[in-house]
Fold this sequence. Notes:
2 copies of one chain form a homodimer. Chain A is of the alpha/beta class.
Amino acid sequence: MPSIDPTSVQRVTILGAGTIGSGWAAHFLACGKEVTVTDPAPDSARRVAEFIKAAWPALVRLGTAKVDTPPEYRFVEDPADAVRDAQFVQESAPENLEIKRVLYDRVESALPAETIFSTSTSGILISDLQEGRIHPGRFVVGHPFNPPYLVPLVEVVGGKHTPSDLVDWTVDFYRANQKYPIKLNKEVPGHLANRLQMALWREAVHAAIEGIASMEDIDAAVTEALGIRWAVVGPHLTVHLAGGPGGMHHQLEHLGPGIQSWFDDLGAPNLTEKVKQHLVTGMNKAIEGRNYDAIVEQRDRELVDLLRERSQVKGQRE
Amino acid sequence: MPSIDPTSVQRVTILGAGTIGSGWAAHFLACGKEVTVTDPAPDSARRVAEFIKAAWPALVRLGTAKVDTPPEYRFVEDPADAVRDAQFVQESAPENLEIKRVLYDRVESALPAETIFSTSTSGILISDLQEGRIHPGRFVVGHPFNPPYLVPLVEVVGGKHTPSDLVDWTVDFYRANQKYPIKLNKEVPGHLANRLQMALWREAVHAAIEGIASMEDIDAAVTEALGIRWAVVGPHLTVHLAGGPGGMHHQLEHLGPGIQSWFDDLGAPNLTEKVKQHLVTGMNKAIEGRNYDAIVEQRDRELVDLLRERSQVKGQRE
Lengths: 318, 318
């Protein structure tokens, strides 16, 4: 357990600087931290610098960054050097248990005894990563959403060796650094948000292969109704509010059997070759030759606009 | 098939003016239509007027309404009178096949021969409503999301007696009236968006009863990551973009088996008494005594703010 208060951490090390790691680097720089970055790829120092420069205007618009240009940071070759005086480590190495283990072997003895080591893994169980470590309890998952400098959520979960108060410390650390952390009580494949995402997409796949609507219109059913509402109220609160003043209790008592039959009628598609071909063809039709980079750029601009509007609105009302 | 162009419709009749019907009335008034409203409840004329007055500021903020106070409209007692010179009818009677059939019996002979009759039903098949009608082909579903004057989506679907070009006409009519219509190619229980909504909520229920996180944190996983992103890009496009420049094809080829195992690992909860109790208790804890009306009011304000920001952003870029 770190003796330092989670709000007082100044020195953050980014281990692995692909898209996720570079996004974390940009975010922690914007939060005013002293950031050290390391990545073994030959060209990574240049790529990280370019990434941070490209991300910066969005961080300024969002209000995370208070200065117009990115501050200095350290890029070092040796991961052991990178973590030597770190007060918090965010690891975003490739999603491979062996690669991560080799990296952990290299850095663990250089890591200060109290430093929390958080992995961005989306799919590896933290208990598997803790196996064989000197201080397994310091290892937690801090799973961001892409891009980590825009999307607020971080899922925090400990493994079987992580004390609960250490998970709480990590939650407090992310909260103090302008993220929205949630604490997961147990390790499950996909954590939580990706499971929810897969549940929606599975039904969207079912609708596409059943020919209920075009893939463009299936996406519009989300962007033009569900998504914009889910940006404001989550799925449980949505059901509660739909129940009127009687809320969740009223909904379940009066519509319970109906809801159950809806649950049971949902699709469970298999991704056969034919289904995959259908999805690829339908997607190509939906994007009608629009350029990949142009769609990503538009998505990120619109996402920043909505996040900015939402945080201003919430700020005014608090 | 109406001879009138869908963009030239002026006279719209609202049959049934509960929450949904009153919302439609406010929306069509804001669009500058001549609106006639009818509802059999004793106090409905007053309630509709109050509803429209309460909804108006949001319609002004959204830019749908161009005037500061609601224009005049007609409220009539007799539904046959209400539809007599209608160029479009939006029916939002209670969700009950018999109640709707009795209403259709009363109005059908008064309805001009060419007028499209659209029902807001969320759960009744349009083919069942077409049974026994004089001109069954004119009946379509135009299913809105609550509140219909805020959420853009309308799901349009015809029954076995509806000609396809009549569905297209209805889609064009809603589009000309500041809604985002999508065309469904077949009738299925729950149409499309509510099925997608149920798919997400089912996994959210599974996460709650498995104790993965608190219900408040499960909701936050949506509002702080998935929802705000789904307000910008739908579920299919999200997967396509996650695949990098290789898009959907790349994702399915490289992650297909993994995705399938994720699909198969999703929960399929049963709403037993114990599960229902768990959800009610968890929900009460999540809202911590917050007042129902206050939550609804906050949701609608934030929804208007986000919709307004999004439409301004899109408007600037088009």
